[in-house]
Design a protein that fits this description.
Distance between the termini: 25 Å
Number of helices: 10
Bound molecules: farnesyl diphosphate
Shape: globular
Number of domains: 1
CATH superfamily: Decaprenyl diphosphate synthase-like
Largest sheet: 6 strands, parallel
Radius of gyration: 19 Å
CATH topology: Undecaprenyl pyrophosphate synthetase
Strand order of the largest sheet: 3-4-2-1-5-6
Number of strands: 6
Length: 256
């Protein structure tokens, strides 16, 4: 299976053929992606790092279209982590201007395609212009019941869990909840992903093999798929390949 995909990629195979190979009855409900490698993509071309981030938007467009076509229900994209503030200010500023750039051209299309935009992360620290763009996208698509496009923006899984634990402790102290009632389901309901299912498939591009503080609770039983492809080069065939590999996996959730 993998060899076939590699050959297709090498000769630029049309992604429709890759898609046609997929079992339509076993499409992951929720796909989460760590979009990595923008900087390296730019460096390889002698371009500034921000050119890689800009190019990354094109890959987002391709994958949103394809996720919709395949009937994936939720697509979560790690767009800015709580650790990304450590980057040079100019790069941070650029990263936080990407939602405006993206939604300016894409929002009409997303609306037309019945996509429901959502956010997870700490919104309080984000600049006003970023907030305005993302909140507008959420508002304008809130009645859509198609693909949920969930942007993780200023998101960090540890801080998400810490916030949930603090909230649970407060609710226990206030007598709204007893400590015996704090189950895994209750914990999940205090997370930013309360209204969506856990990712079935988690993809990371660029050859890095780690989760980088992304959905640590939610990914407990996700199938993980890593590829050397840099995010701006990630296309429909790669996405189909990831799903094909997912479909070959036996998900046992700790059972036999
Ligand atoms: C990691 O690559 C990528 C990011 C930190 C940003 C990803 C964001 C986008 C692709 C666009 C987001 C768009 C919207 C609409 C919010 P890197 O810079 O760490 O790459 P490197 O590891 O090669 O340096």
């Amino acid at each position: 299976m993998l060899d076939k995909f590699s050959k297709w990629r090498a000769r630029g195979k049309d992604s429709n053929e890759a898609i046609a190979e997929l079992e339509t009855t076993n499409i992951p409900n929720h796909v989460a992606i760590i979009m990595d490698g923008n900087g390296r993509w730019a460096k390889k071309r002698g371009l500034p790092r921000i050119a890689g981030h800009r190019e990354g938007i094109k890959a987002i467009n391709k994958i949103v279209r394809q996720a919709n076509q395949l009937d994936v229900k939720v697509l979560t994209l790690y767009a800015f982590s709580t650790e990304n503030w450590k980057r040079p200010k100019a790069e941070v500023d650029y990263l936080l201007s990407l939602p405006e750039i993206f939604f300016k051209s894409e929002l009409p299309i997303l609306k037309q395609e019945n996509v429901n935009v959502r956010l997870m992360g700490s919104m309080a620290q984000l600049p006003e212009h970023t907030l305005k763009a993302v909140r507008n996208a959420v508002e304008e698509t809130k009645d859509n019941d198609g693909l949920i496009l969930n942007f993780a923006l200023n998101y960090g899984s540890r801080s998400e869990m810490l916030e949930a634990i603090k909230q649970i402790s407060e609710d226990v102290a206030a007598g709204k909840l007893s400590s015996d009632e704090v189950t895994e389901e209750v914990m999940s309901s205090y997370l930013m992903t309360a209204s969506i299912s856990d990712p079935d498939l988690l993809i990371r591009t660029s050859g890095e093999i780690r989760l980088s503080n992304f959905m640590l609770w939610q990914a407990a039983y996700s199938e993980l798929w890593f590829t050397d492809v840099l995010w701006p080069d990630f296309n429909e065939s790669h996405f189909a390949e990831a799903i094909a590999v997912y479909q070959k996996r036996a998900r046992r959730y700790g059972g036999v």
